[in-house]
Amino acid sequence: MNLRLVLIFGLVGVVALAWAAAFVVWRAAELGALVGPLEERHYPSLTVVAVGTGSDYENPERLGPSTAVAWANHVVLVDAGRGVSEALRNAGIPVNQPQLVLLTHLLPVNTLGLDDLLYTGWLEDREQPLRVVGPPGTAALVEGLLAAHAQGSEALNRALPLPSLGVRIEVDEVEGGYSEEIEGVMLHAGALSGGPLPALAWRFERGKRSVVISGTGWAPEELAEFARDTDLLIHEAVYIPPPEDIEGAGVIADPERLIREAALHTSIEDVGDLARRARARQLVLIRMRPPPFYDFQIEAIVGKTYDGPIVIPEDGESLTP
Fold first, then answer.
1. Beta 185-191 vs 179-182: how paired, if at all?
2. How far is CA 195 from each of CA 17, 53, 306, rounded to the nearest angstrom?
3. Separation of alpha carbons 31 and 315, rounded Å
4. Sign of the C-alpha dihedral, residues 275, 278, 279, 280?
């Protein structure tokens, strides 16, 4: 073998080793971002993080509904849907940083992530009890949740142990008209009546900025009034096909079920008018469920009755009112 071939093979080997080393470093960095500890987040201004933007049905691109409102080192979650721990990780928020969860209602779509928050908070040494504030019935929900995990948590506590305060959940049941202040931010609850169970919308105010988050499709008039002149109205826009369209497409479905399901949600064709009546400066759509399949289709439908900015965030996206 002549010298030229030796040099060529040597050069190829060096390049291959360098490529392999670069891949190892890249993979290590990727894994670190996926599983490494996260630093506590600090938000200099009032910020909304669309932690999870999905709905009742499974969607690998959108985890269950959960919206964070953050300022300074405070992170308040409104609702805690499925996969909330993974959604917080994707948003760059440590799972033990949120100390308060506000519930809009007690349908499972909003509460499936509570046990996830509790458990991962144990493992991440949550320093304070997780506080949950929601409509009547929240205390019974949390009591049942803790009872369901009692045997496992006791065994885990003997093995590790668990943080003494972080294993607890403190519950406050509230109704419309409730308010409290947390370090310069006012939280207000607005009652939304007429549904199958009590429901609340939540309003955050800091200075002249405000954010309103709702998790239900009933009581649109009450929501429009509660959200009056808000900077960000964060709400759902759900497409549920009418029974005649389903039948025309040859799909087998229960027409009565479709009608009942539609009554639980704000239609994609109605949410723009709701935002217009509320005089919301910006409309943020979450709890998304296709069809339509493209943002421009949604914007075109909603834009027929609302001429303000329309935002359809991805999971983990941050917004500033």
1. antiparallel
2. 64, 22, 25
3. 20
4. negative
Tokens of residue 298, six digits? 């949604």
Beta strands in 200-289 (DSSP E): 200-206, 209-213, 232-236, 283-286
Residue 294: predicted pLDDT:
86
Token pair for residue 147? 């009872």
pLDDT-derived band at 26 (thresholds 50, 70, 90) equals very low
Q: How far is CA 65 from CA 142, 156, 172, in A?
A: 19, 29, 21
Q: What is the mean pLDDT of residues 300-315?
A: 96
**With 0-12 CB in 10 A as exposed, 13-18 as middle and 19+ as buried, what is 101?**
buried
Q: What is the pLDDT of residues 170-186, one digit of tens each?
A: 999 999 999 999 999 99
Report the C-alpha gap between 50 and 284 in whole angstroms. 9
Torsional class of 122: left (φ above 0), alpha (ψ -120 to 50), beta (otherwise): alpha
Q: Could you give the dihedral angle defined by the CA atoms of residues 170, 175, 177 and 181, in that order, rounded to the nearest 10 degrees?
A: 10
C-beta separation of 307 from 258 below 8 A: no
pLDDT of 173 reads: 98
The structure tokens 């760059």 sit at: 92
Instruction: Using pLDDT thresholds of 50, 70 and 90, give the confidence band for residue 20.
Output: low
Q: 142-147: long-range contacts at Cβ-Cβ below 8 A with a sequence spacing of 24 or more? A: 142/114, 142/169, 142/171, 145/114, 145/115, 145/118, 145/169
Residues 186-202 pLDDT 10s: 999 999 999 999 999 99
User: Token pair of 319, please?
Assistant: 């917004």
